[in-house]
Amino acid sequence: MNNTSVVTEFILLGIPHTEDLETELFVLFLSFYIFTLVGNLLILLAIVSSTQLHTPMYFFLCKLSVCDIFFPSVSSPKMLLYLSGHSRAISYAGCVSQLFFYHFLGCTECFLCTVMAYDRFVAICHPLRYKVIMSHRVCAILAMGTSFFGCIQATFLTTLTFQLPYCGPNEVDYFFCDIPVMLKLACADTSAVEMVGFISVGLVTLSCFLLICTSYSRIVYSILQIRSAEGRRRAFSTCSAHLTAVLLLYMPVVLIYLRPTPSPWLDATVQVLNNLVTPMLNPLIYSLRNKDVKFSLRKILHQLGFLPEQW
């Protein structure tokens, strides 16, 4: 008998235990989504418009902002639609697309954070060779590589999930299509798929995290060799924003995909934070501690008429 999927659409039930809170959640999540889009667009404008910021570090930050614009856009528009009273139904193809692009952008960010850690390692540990090592060609290859390997990982996880038959229940007890909730609806034994998915996500996450830790252990050692207190302060300040972003990226992955006993309420809460709050915080994290970005942002806001002349 062939494993053919007879389910043509799924019903998104939303965040567990939030019945009768649709209006409040709509206003809250719409605010988060708008702030995320505006914040990341301003970071992009600030970097693109200032030639002083045309360096590898800000090039990768640009790509992070692009990812942070699209990442919440995978699930938020559909969630906002059904919270405002529209249909909760999503087609089979739409569900596949949600899962693929969610993991494609998530994995791309994971690899991108690893590349950004390597960039900081070269800048601090090999400053005289920085421009040679992090040339335009190398930066382009690294940036494309993050998307390429993110696409491979997402394709593997999506294929792994949807090669199973879906022939009965179609109510997704979540606010978007993700691996753990989709496996519950499959009309087959999912233990082997769950194990393979766990190993795949775990290997990618652990590999990237170890590479980041290796880069930053070398960075910390080099910073401690700097004699001036001002030099050490500036070096730590440059890296602290990236480390904060790394923690915000990896904690949800561990809590959602690498826990032995899932909790629907905790998973949904962490996913909302991961989908909407973290992409909204990244522009603040990278701009508040960076004088160059803040100066460029003030210049743009002044040109747009949002700040007076004295700023």
Summarize the structure.
This protein has 311 residues and is mainly α. Helices cover 72% and strands 3% of the residues.
Structural features, described:
72% of the residues lie in helices and 3% in strands.
Explain the layout of strands and helices:
Elements: E1 9-12, H1 22-49, H2 56-73, H3 76-83, E2 89-91, H4 92-125, H5 130-133, H6 136-162, E3 171-172, H7 179-183, H8 191-224, H9 229-257, H10 264-288, H11 291-303
Parallel strand pairs: 1-3
Antiparallel strand pairs: 1-2
Keywords:
single chain, 311 residues, mainly alpha, three-stranded mixed β-sheet
Weakly predicted, low-confidence segments:
none
Q: Report the biggest beta sheet as strand number plus sense, adding barrel if it closes.
A: 3 strands, mixed
Task: State the distance separating the first and last CA atoms.
Answer: 71 Å
What is the percentage of strand-forming residues?
Answer: under 5%
SSE string: EHHHEHHHEHHHHH
The total of helices stands at 11
Number of strands: 3
Shape type: globular
Radius of gyration, rounded?
A: 21 Å
Helix content: over 70%
Mean pLDDT across all residues, rounded? 86
Arrangement of strands in the largest sheet: 2-1-3
- Secondary-structure-based class equals mainly alpha
